[in-house]
Write a structure and sequence with these properties.
four-stranded mixed beta sheet; alpha/beta; globular; 2 helices
């Protein structure tokens, strides 16, 4: 049986070079870090929500999964557990994001890909 993850203590997210360039440009455009929030639709290639840092209110069940280029990446802790504690790769692809999420720029949107589940802690 796995141990319940606590906010910010485990988890992992990384980013492709293209996503890191987009994050750097967004941080410059908004005068500070942005934040990513992965919704329930986190199958491979889904869009994370992206906002200027601190603009999105996190709930008690949300956890910090990781930090990329100074920008935080959050998701629901129960969902993270249910997915087997995956390693996420933040990437970009052509298109515009849905909802109120920030575009990555240059006609791109951010997407989250699942790299692999993390080893379970017993």
């Amino acid at each position: 049986m796995s141990t319940k993850v606590e906010n910010g203590t485990v988890g992992h997210v990384t980013a492709t070079r293209a996503a890191r360039r987009a994050i750097t440009a967004l941080c410059a455009a908004h005068g500070g870090p942005v934040m990513f929030v992965q919704s329930g639709g986190c199958c491979d290639g889904s869009d994370p929500m992206c906002f200027p840092g601190g603009e999105f209110a996190l709930g008690a069940g949300d956890m910090l999964v990781g930090v990329v280029n100074g920008c935080t990446f959050h998701m629901d802790a129960d969902l993270y557990e249910a997915l087997g504690r995956p390693i996420f790769v933040l990437d970009v692809e052509p298109g515009t994001p849905g909802g109120f999420s920030l575009a990555a720029g240059d006609g791109l949107r951010f997407v989250t890909r699942v790299k692999a589940p993390r080893e379970q802690v017993s």
